[in-house]
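Final report, closing paragraph on structural work. Over the funding period we assembled a curated collection of sequence-structure pairs, and we close with a single example.
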Amino acid sequence: MGRRLRFRGEFTNKVDTKGRVSIPAPFRRVLEAGDPDWTEGLNPNFVIVYGDHRRKYLECYTVQEMEDVEDRISRMKRGSQKRRVLERLFSTQSVTTSVDETGRIVLSAKLRDKIGLSKEAQFASNVDTFQIWEPATYEDELASTEEYLDEMDDDFDPLMLLDEDEEDEDL
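Its predicted structure, as stored:
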């Protein structure tokens, strides 16, 4: 299997009155690579998970990444509470969309209202996914990350966090 591209960076883009917003160009390359049906000249598809009322952002998955999540869900015991919750959060409370020829997507009024989006959208990478935030909400979230880091020693190396929470190789 080839190298999987990752999302990196943060960008702020304007949202027009119809809900159209440009996907950052580096993110579009990852969406293309993560859509098994994409070829040059086509528009890549991806999945926006909007989740329940507690979620303050839209989480965007490549087709491949979402299929990986769905494969894990489908291996769970049918009818179990955990599976039902995951089905609801990832399958029911999501929408498949595509990037248009100009590199934009249309966010429905429902999605914009859910996260309070109006004139600008904050895009933030999350390695395998990217998120779309209302910029002020995103700034608040960054502040909570800074508070966490402020509690660390001066010689704290963020890479130490990897050692604490390594994911099991068998997952």
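The mean pLDDT is 91. The chain is about 35% helix and 20% strand. We thank the funder for supporting this effort.
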